[in-house]
Amino acid sequence: MKPQIRKLGTIDCDLVETTPVVFKGRLYRFEYVRPKYWANRTGQSHFRFVEHDTGEASRPFAHDYHLGNVMVEHDTLYVTGTNIWDGERVDIFRSTDMANWESWNTLNLPGYGIFNTSMCRAGDRYVLMFELGKPPELVGVRFTAFFAVSDDLRRWQVLPPDHNYAKDRYTAPHALRYLDGWFYNFYLEYVRADNGFEQRVVRSRDLKRWESSPLNPVLRWSEDDRRIANPNLPPEQVRRVQTAENRNNSDIDFCEHEGRVIINYSWGNQRGNEFLAEAVFDGTLAQFLKGWFPEGSATVPVAASGTLTLLCTGR
Asked: Which of 21, 90, 273, 283 could cross-link to 107 by cystine, CB 3.0-4.6 Å?
């Protein structure tokens, strides 16, 4: 059976790239706040953490950085951010208290166009997935996932270009997880027949040969996205939610908290009219990841280039 995701509804407007995270026992939402976010009075992009139950926000940091993501390890926050959209640089910001931050450079790739990032630990190393929009001779069809690895989060090696997903079509990556020898890449696929975008998942042992879940899509746009899950959302923003075009579920990220998987995702039109929603899966993170690839089910292997190969009949 497909993992059952319950959509709870919209919690904010003009926020897209967010990550639920548990830090020192409390549930937070990491947010990339864009300059045109309706409640941003600074005129600058920045990152922040919002306590899930109270809505209390941390002090903003990483001003003028974009498209952030976060990983937690040993009561330490590691936030990745891109210097600009379509940028050449990714930096890491580190903190143990959400107030004091140090930073260092992770990637510096002249001529490349970097967007979203996602980082996880895989055994004795760290893996960074980064989304590229250029150069076209490397990327193929925008947007494509590439990867870098590190032993210490400071010195990074970009893996050879055959470590990717996928060059033959729109497959914008967003969330990378690792479990029991498998990497799970939750990405956005363009559905030409519906002129829309839906969230899907593939997995790989080596970041080169991928299997597509037989239960895709993970998320698809629906009227449930419009539910109002934030009672403090101003009336003018509620009206936007009620009338907005919706043909997209994107930018998924998630964490486990108290026996459930807390999920954030974006909906809207993928052209700037975008909304932040929350959903839940009643189970553990391991159950959520493994549930997309049930034992004995048929999967479609996909090469790093994105080319489909023969269909498996079982595992």
From this structure: 90
Give the global pTM: 0.94
Would 311 be classed as within a structural domain?
no
Tell me the residue type at 156. W
Token match 């579920």: residue?
Answer: 249
- Find all residues with CB under 8 Å of 300, minimum gap 6, and list them: 211, 212, 214, 308, 309, 311, 312
Q: Is residue 20 part of a domain?
A: yes
Two tokens, residue 11 = 């919690």
pLDDT, average across residues 200-205: 99
**CATH code: domain of residue 289:** 2.115.10.20
For residues 69 and 253, is the Cβ–Cβ distance under 8 A?
Answer: yes
DSSP-assigned beta bridge partners for residue 212: 202, 300
User: Cβ(102)–Cβ(62) under 8 Å?
Assistant: no
Rounded to whole angstroms, the Cα distance separating 302 from 297 reads 16
CB-CB contact of 267 with 221 (8 Å): yes
Split into its structural domains, the chain has a count of 1
Domain presence at residue 58: yes
Is 31 buried (19+), middle (13-18) or exposed (0-12) by CB count in 10 A?
buried
Residues whose CB is less than 8 angstroms from the CB of residue 200 and which lie 6 or more positions away in sequence, other chains included = 186, 187, 188, 189, 212, 213, 216, 217, 218
User: pLDDT tens, 114-166?
Assistant: 999 999 999 999 999 999 999 999 999 999 999 999 999 999 999 999 999 99
